[in-house]
Design brief:
By secondary structure, the protein is of the alpha+beta class. It contains twelve helices and 20 strands. A hairpin with a 3-residue loop joins β14 (224-235) and β15. The protein binds flavin-adenine dinucleotide.
Length: 411
């Protein structure tokens, strides 16, 4: 983009992701001289991948219960820049919202329009984005800070680190800033993948790969119920995925990291009570017990691929004749369908994660300004902080809100 600056800048932002671009725009609008350093060859690469290319950028139900992390800090940041502020900011830069069930997208249905709108606003404010400038080092000097990149070095009065964590590292956030930040004295809550699937055991996953079904999931940590979710479960050859799995992923991955036993109880027929199901079994049995096999009990109720697997889970061979299935075994089958326990073995890799849980310890950060408590003039925004949200536009809202707060604070 623009030529490199040799003058002393008020602010350098590290990372041209959602939070970094927002921080830079906010500081520039308040009259500060700002530049962004980005290691990739384009800004906003991760934004392009969000919401399946449609960018779900905020949500109507914006409150701290949707986040994991320091609730007081999250509340303080969301109070400063709310969902309403996001909608009016987006409107100002030319993004009309389209709302669907509380989820907001650009009216174009394209994440690329969000990136273009941010680029346009950065250009309008004369904020240069220096591309392919991976930051290798950052340290205080007599002017404020000196930043060394792969190609050159910069000096500035304030730095906003918005370099993300490790999720989807092909899109830029590769953890290259971790050692630099640690060198400045900050500590990290261990960084783990979240909003992703899990390797699991308990049923024959290889036989149900590709099945999608509405299910209730109950996360159990060391046998205790931690949380429940409803939604479209995706069964894969390695285990479980899909939105309800993403929603429970943050506490699940943390518990696995802490070497706890982590299980998910799946209710494959949440709309049909055990009583109704057993009555239905009895009817089917009555109609055709002499000619039919056990799989007749579930036909039409569940995906064909699931039927032999769930029968087996309940100790019934799919080819057993119906007349051999006692009412006790039918009850066991109903119980297995409503409470099919799978054990989580490990989380998928960072490259398949939409976000990370963990990050810079928030007790080392001023909750009002997002300035480091260890080093004056150093600020943080976005996912790099130990804050993560569930699916639904919450993580981008965190990026916009924290970027805004950091951008205001340097001003
Ligand atoms: C596939 C996918 C879909 C998603 N969908 C949604 C969604 O619909 N809604 C939602 O709310 N959230 C979604 N998210 C999550 C959301 O995209 C992130 O939470 C958000 O983009 C994080 O913004 P950030 O600015 O903190 O970090 P990032 O977007 O990761 O940006 C960090 C930037 O810093 C740069 N950088 C890193 N290290 C250096 C360095 N050393 N020097 C210079 N630059 C550096 C990186 O290249 C990157 O551009 C999705 C994520 C993924 C991967």
């Amino acid at each position: 983009m623009s030529k490199k600056s040799t003058k002393l800048l008020d602010v350098i932002v590290i990372g041209a992701g959602a939070s970094g671009m927002m921080a830079a725009i906010t500081a520039a609008r308040r009259g500060k001289s700002v530049a962004i350093l980005e290691r990739m060859n384009k800004p906003g690469k991760k934004i392009l991948a969000t919401g399946n290319g449609k960018c779900n950028f905020t949500n109507n139900n914006m409150d701290t219960s949707r986040f994991h992390g320091n609730i007081q800090l999250i509340q303080s940041v969301l109070d400063r820049f709310s969902k309403e502020d996001t909608l009016s900011f987006f409107h100002e830069i030319g993004i009309w919202p389209k709302e669907k069930n509380g989820y907001y997208y650009p009216n174009s249905g394209q994440a690329v329009s969000v990136v273009e709108a941010f680029n346009h606003e950065l250009n309008r404010l004369h904020v240069p984005v220096y591309l392919e400038q991976e930051v290798l080092d950052l340290f205080p000097d007599k002017y404020g800070f000196r930043i060394k990149t792969v190609q050159t070095s910069y000096t500035c009065r304030n730095v906003i680190v918005a370099s993300g964590l490790l999720a989807a590292s092909k899109l830029g956030s590769d953890g290259s800033m971790f050692s630099v930040i640690k060198e400045l004295g900050h500590r990290f809550v261990p960084v783990l993948p979240a909003l992703c699937g899990f390797y699991a055991k308990g049923i024959q996953f290889s036989k149900v790969a590709g099945v999608r079904c509405d299910a209730n999931l109950t996360l159990k940590i060391d046998g205790d119920t931690a949380t429940t979710e409803h939604g479209e479960l995706q069964l894969t050859d390695y285990g479980i995925s899909g939105i309800p799995v993403f929603q429970i992923s943050s506490p699940a991955v943390r518990a696995l990291y802490e070497k706890k036993t982590v299980a998910v109880a799946i209710d494959f027929l949440p709309e049909i009570s055990s009583e109704m199901l057993c009555t239905e079994f009895a009817l089917r049995m009555e109609r055709s017990k002499t000619e039919e096999k056990a799989d007749r009990l579930l036909s039409g109720l569940l995906n064909q691929k699931l039927i032999p697997v769930l029968l087996k889970y309940a100790g019934i061979h799919p080819n057993e004749m119906l007349e051999n299935i006692t009412s006790e075994r039918m009850e066991r089958l109903s119980a297995g369908i409503h409470d099919c326990q799978v054990t989580l073995e490990k989380v998928r890799d960072f490259e398949f994660a939409q976000v990370c849980t963990g990050g810079i310890r928030t007790e080392e950060i001023d909750e009002k300004t997002l300035e480091s408590r260890l080093l004056s003039g150093l600020y943080f925004a976005g996912e790099i902080l130990d804050v993560d949200g569930i699916c639904g536009g919450y993580n981008l809202q965190w990026a916009w809100s924290s970027g805004f707060v950091a951008g205001c604070s340097v001003s």
